[in-house]
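Exercise 7.
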Amino acid sequence: MDASAVTQTLKPGKLFIGGKPSECASGKKIDVMNPATGELLTTVERGEAADADRAVKAARQAFESGPWPKMNASERGKILWRIGELIDKHRDELAMLECLNTGKTLKGAQRGDMKPASDIFYYYAGWARNLHGEVIPVDGPFLNYTLREPVGVVGMITAWNYPMLLAAWKVAPALATGCTCVIKPSELTPLTTLRLAELCQEAGVPDGVVNVVTGYGPEAGEALGRHMDVDKIAFTGSIRSARALLKASGESNLKRLSLELGGKSPNIIFPDADLDTAIPAAFWAIYANKGEVCSAGSRLLLHKDIHDQFLERLVDKAKNMRVGNPLDPKTEMGSQISQAQLDRILGYVKSGVEEGAKLLCGGERDTEGEKAKGFFVKPTVFSGVKPSMKIAQEEIFGPVLAAIEFRDEEEAVSISNGTVYGLVSAVWTRDIQRAHRLARQIKAGVVWINTYNGFDSAAPFGGYKQSGFGREQGMHALESYTQVKSVWVAL
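Solution. The predicted structure, written as tokens, is:
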């Protein structure tokens, strides 16, 4: 699909409430930009508290009195399957929208965003009719059984790095369980979420079940967090925003939350690892999606015996990486999402240099040719990083790799667990005992052994510590969209 064909037909985005496009109460707009070119793509509505309230009311009505709660589970499953089919049908269009709106490569959007987005709906389509309770052998002349029921109206707040996929991760299990939802996408990347709502409607989702309010976090997002008629918030974003949502929940109706908050993930390489496999994996662990990945392998822990040779080969790859036009099939890395994110990344680079880390490559804005119009950063590698340095402790969310040398297994575990985060990790070794030993010792929600970035709709994803709580994907995600009712019958 040609980019001009998409941009020429791109209309100003409306809110999606009660099954219909809608204007916001204030009449205000948000500019939606192409970060690779600095050009305006379109505008969307700037939804605020009044608009969030209207969307929640539509979702509540759909949950309490619409056809959705009365629908057979098998029919809900068929609708989810149709959503997956529609995403596949429109994959080229959706990937182009995602590419233009986020600066990620088109091939990355097709493979890493749209393919798993459709698959998550196929996966949860099967769960719709497989959610059930249990009979419990309690003492006395009683029959005790449980019902697993939908939690109700779910507010969903998603980040800008994988807009379509993060929305799909939340919408699919919510619909499978019978919930209704209001999605607040990032103000930077709302386009594919609005399109997802339209596809849900086309697939047969009743009016009011899936609603979208575009807007800013402190306005629309905060309103969802404090709304007395929202039963749950599913959030992907920063620790700072998560704290605000936890406070909002505590000061409103004690709504439950599931939080995916990013990481500072260790990628540990032992001397006996297969370096020919580990080096390209470590490369893409940090540079995939421009480093704007919560599971990025941003801390590369290298054993002293292979430290120098590993870095030499990896730096050579980084220096030769093709950074540029996201629409070019040969491009390996596109632009960062915004000027603010570009400045944030360069600020961390400055911090690394000031604290004494050695800058091996990159570390500056890429302004060659047409890239001067966008927000491009050269792939960056630091060596000589100490675990206490800012670039080894804080999530940069960009193509900046901090290489840390370690001497033995005990030190590797200590460094790995030495941050506030605990999202993912990886261990590269041929020693099977060591691999399983470290899998237990590392405090992270995911441990990859001799691989990196392994994802599947059936496998749970989520973090320890300040990387959040709750899980997305797999059967465990269903727990946060349902509640258990215990029923006693006197016999």
